[in-house]
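Z., the sequence and structure:
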Amino acid sequence: MIALFAAAALLAGAPCNPPSGVEALWTPDHRFIVVGEIHGTTEAPAAFAQIVCAATEQGPVTVALELPTEMQPRLDAFMAATDDASAEALLHDTFFWETDPERQDGRSSVAMLEMMQSVRRLKAAGRDVTLRGFQPSNPRPATFDQNYYELDMAVELAHAAAERPESRVLVLVGNIHASKTRFDRFDLMPAAAHLPRKATLTLNVAQQGGQSWSCQAEGCRAHDSMERYDTTARGIVMGSAAEGAYDGVIAVGPWTASPPVGARAVPAP
């Protein structure tokens, strides 16, 4: 609900309300600002929305989301819609209204949709901002492992930057994809590690307890999250994290789970 009021206030000319410390992100060297999250929370998309708002006060912005590239025509139409209802209607037969619980992984959550609406409202208010999906829709052959998928994601982000070279690219993606270092355990080079290192700043949304919506062995629902970071901390804290995987963290406090948009279309049992 807080995110809803904050986004609506954008059209009324209210100032942005990003996490404290956001000023550290606006360096001329950083073309890509990558925020890694655990999908299915309310707080991470809401914080990201306000970071986007603050970024548009600095100049043009491309918002890149972990959504299928085949959705791009819908995303363009979504951004051009004149009101929330018509914008939402454009997504009704897309990934966002997936009713298979196994595919409701948090990227199509109510909080994600509200974040997208806030980006659309920024554009309607005259800000120079666009929305781009960068999850590759064309599958690789079975013999191509996850490393090729990560590389394809990075290529899509590079294309997004080249299409609007004057803009910052703000990325919201799962935190594994946002890492700048190799996962030796899985022999995996994440998407962010393929981006130009000096031009890329990565942040991880800190785990401070609470819950996120995810699919686990016991089903798809709100699940408890671990406390891996000081639960009292708030804001953007710069400094190497996870042995150099990230350039800082975003502390938003304990999470609350955000259910999938598609769940609204599923009758109660």
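Residues 1 and 56 are 23 Å apart (CA to CA). The longest strand covers residues 61-68.

Let me know what you think.
H.
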